[in-house]
Design a protein that fits this description.
The structure holds 2 protein chains of 2 kinds.
Chain A (H helix, E strand, L loop, with lengths): L4 H56 L15 E7 L9 H18 L3 E7 L1 H9 L6 E3 L8 H15 L17 E9 L5 E9 L20 E3 L2 H83 L1
Parallel strand pairs in A: 1-2, 1-4, 2-3
Antiparallel strand pairs in A: 4-5
Helix pairs in contact in A: 1-5, 4-5
Chain B lengths: L4 E7 L2 E8 L1 E6 L2 E6 L5 E5 L2 E6 L6 E5 L2 E6 L2 E6 L2 E3 L5 H14 L2 H17 L1
Parallel strand pairs in B: 1-9
Antiparallel strand pairs in B: 1-2, 3-4, 3-6, 5-8, 6-7, 7-10, 8-9
Helix pairs in contact in B: 1-2
The chains are: A alpha/beta, B alpha+beta.
């Protein structure tokens, strides 16, 4: 007998307890995805109007802005990696980190130095464990990002790109970068989430999903106080809004992959419980059979001994 | 009666107010700006302050906005700000506490936001 009935019963009980936990986590993740999607929908009007305004300025004025100008010989790049704060979400964090590593290799291959900016404790832990340096990290909001988080991250990153010499908060010149990439997970559907890379700076104004159609002619705006100043104010906001978009996508993806991971954990627990129950039943039956044969054997032996003595 | 303006007051994470109005007054970097129906297309920067929206009938809608911008085109006015609150959503004592906290921390942005909210409360009362 491989295991006693008692041991098997204990295993079944502990697996049942695990199953309850994973099941609860699955349900929590499922309900929070809906909230994350609502948040993304609520942020859409702002992003749409902002994109419209930025494209209007870009179309009607030929101002060159440092945030939109490509450097001739980029030598330094920054990468913002958006991963999760907590695990138990399947391969979510590791696939983002893998994508980030690939990008780092690619940029190094092009002869660029890479500065890392991290969001999420899992990303921080990954680089700390390997004793690899990163510049700054933000944690504690991966599953419910607020706009203020995007603003904090955005301000830091814009400053590294747009080193203004009059800026009193100007950062270490060594941190100055020529381009900025973001690695995050795009939420395609409840079943598919893919790690993705976008280049945020220098800026290419990308049309949002609800961009004005081609037939719509943008009106001839007047700019107050001037096109350049309007652009100055709009672009950092545009970047904040893009980062917010990435954070929201990442949080929806994190919750979706957590739900998926917890669902398969629950299913596995069910399989285990079934297997253990069968083994336990078999062991109990074997025990009963053995007892019966022992009794029958004992009775026969007694009967034989009695018959011999008479 | 001229056409009405279609207003959207949008914060970074939600639509604060949308609807029709006959007039909008907002404070831009160039000074107070009133927009009536038929205004020329305009993109202007807002300073933290109060935006007043006058619907054709009923109460004036007042909102506090942080830095942002205002765009007018085809009788369609969008007011965008990273932070925006309607007068009915802010609370005077909470905002004063917020202002004091911001001043003691020396956070200029937060100070400006709180002051804009206080101005809104003053106007509304």
């Amino acid at each position: 007998m491989a295991a006693s009935v008692r041991e098997l019963r204990a295993k079944i009980r502990s697996t049942q307890a695990t199953k309850k936990i994973t099941r609860a986590m699955e349900l929590i993740a499922a309900s929070r995805i809906i909230k994350a999607q609502q948040k993304a929908a609520a942020a859409a009007p702002y992003a749409r109007e902002l994109t419209r305004a930025v494209s209007a300025v870009a179309t009607f004025s030929n101002v060159d802005h440092p945030l939109t100008t490509e450097k001739e010989n980029p030598t330094k790049a920054a990468i913002l990696v958006i991963a999760s704060d907590r695990g138990l979400a399947g391969a979510y964090s590791s696939s983002v980190l893998k994508e980030a590593e690939r990008l780092v290799e690619k940029l190094r291959g092009e002869g660029k130095d890479v500065d890392l900016y991290l969001s999420g404790r899992k990303a921080e832990a990954y680089y700390n464990f390997r004793s690899r340096p990163f510049v700054e990290s933000w944690t504690g909001f991966s599953d419910k990002p607020e706009y203020s988080h995007a603003r904090t991250i955005g301000n830091t990153l814009v400053r590294t790109f747009n080193l203004d010499e009059t800026d009193e908060e100007a950062i270490d010149p060594e941190r100055a970068v020529d381009e900025l990439h973001v690695v995050f997970t795009r939420f395609k559907s409840m079943l598919v989430q893919e790690p993705d890379v976008i280049r945020l700076l220098p800026l290419e104004v990308v049309e949002g999903t609800e961009a004005p159609t081609e037939h719509e002619v943008l009106p001839l705006y007047e700019f107050e106080p001037s096109a350049h100043e309007v652009l100055d104010a709009l672009l950092p906001k545009y970047i904040h809004s893009r980062i917010y978009y990435c954070l929201l996508q990442a949080s929806a993806s994190e919750l979706a992959s957590r739900q998926k991971a917890m669902k398969s954990a629950t299913d596995n627990a069910e399989d285990l419980i079934q297997k253990y129950t069968r083994t336990a039943n078999q062991a109990r039956q074997a025990g009963i059979t053995q007892e019966i044969s022992e009794i029958v054997g004992g009775a026969n032996a007694l009967a034989d001994a009695n018959a011999g003595s008479e | 009666m001229a056409d009405l303006l279609q207003i959207e007051l949008v914060a970074a994470d939600r639509v604060v107010w949308s609807g029709q109005a006959s007039q909008v007054i907002a404070r831009t970097v160039e000074g107070d700006l009133g927009v009536l129906s038929g205004h020329a297309p305009l993109l202007s920067l807002l300073v933290p302050g109060v935006v007043e929206i006058k619907p054709p009938d009923g109460e004036v809608v007042r909102a506090a906005v942080a830095e942002g911008f205002l765009s007018v085109a085809d009788n369609h006015v969008s007011i965008l700000s990273e932070d925006a609150f309607l007068a009915s959503e802010v609370d005077a004592s909470a905002t004063r506490a917020e202002l004091e906290a911001a001043q003691s921390e020396g956070d200029q942005d937060a100070v400006m936001r709180a002051e804009a909210k206080l101005r809104l409360i003053d106007k509304a009362s």
